[in-house]
Amino acid sequence: MKVESLYHQFSTETLKQLNIDIYDAIKAVSEPENDYQKVLALVEKRDLEIVTILSSLRESEKPLFARLESDINAFFVDEIANLKQAVVEETKTFLLRRNAIKKYK
């Protein structure tokens, strides 16, 4: 997904930046100095911002906002699911190697 696809006509500057920050944080998680807590904190801030935006929209605008945000949310859900699967695989590999080392001791 292109960064420009992470926001739409109803996105506030705060929401735009949060979406970009989440995108960047997800991509950076594979680097050792980064952790999943940053992604979680950003997602929680994003949730609060979305609730704030929804409360400020007219009733007629809310369904469109929800539909547009749903696509962005689905993208983030998929990316985070991929991260989760990568962690599971890393853990399995670690445990297999640890068990192999124990056999040789």
Number of helical elements: 3
Q: How much is the radius of gyration in Å?
A: 18 Å
Tally of extended strands?
0
Low-pLDDT regions: none
Protein name: Flagellar protein FliT
Helix and strand arrangement:
Blueprint: H1 13-28, H2 36-56, H3 62-104
Helix pairs in contact: 1-2
Explained architecture:
The chain has 105 residues and is an all-alpha fold. The chain contains three helices and no strands. The chain has helices spanning 13-28, 36-56, 62-104. The mean pLDDT is 88. This is Flagellar protein FliT.
List keywords for this structure.
105 residues, mainly alpha, 76% helix
TL;DR?
This is Flagellar protein FliT. With 105 residues, the chain is mainly alpha-helical. 76% of the residues lie in helices and 0% in strands.
